[in-house]
Amino acid sequence: MKNVVRDRPLAEQPAVVVHGTIHYTDFIHLAPVYFGIAMTGTGPLLAHPYLCAKALARPKD
C-alpha cells in the first residue's frame, strides 16, 4: 500500500523542479505549491506525538 503522507512532497516537487528548469520561479505563482509542501511536512510533525504515544493501560474492572 502506498504511503500517501510520505509520498505527497514527491508529488509536489515536480512543479517546483519544472518551474525552476524553465526559470519561472515567481513566488506568488508557486505559493500554493510551497504552502502544500509546508503543510505536508508540518502535519506529520505535529501528529507524531499523538500517533506514536504508547497506549494507556486500561483500568481493571
What are the salient characteristics of this protein?
61 residues, rod-shaped
Please explain how this structure is put together.
This protein is mainly alpha-helical and 61 residues long. The chain is 70% helix and 0% strand. It has helices at 4-21, 27-51. The protein starts with a helix and ends in a 10-residue tail after the last helix.
Total beta strands: 0
Instruction: Kindly provide the radius of gyration, computed on alpha-carbon positions and rounded to a whole number of angstroms.
Output: 18 Å
Helix-strand pattern: HH
Task: Name the poorly predicted regions.
Answer: none
Helix content: over 70%
Structural class: mainly alpha
Write a brief structural summary.
This protein has 61 residues and is mostly helical.
Describe the protein's topology.
Elements: H1 4-21, H2 27-51
Helix pairs in contact: 1-2
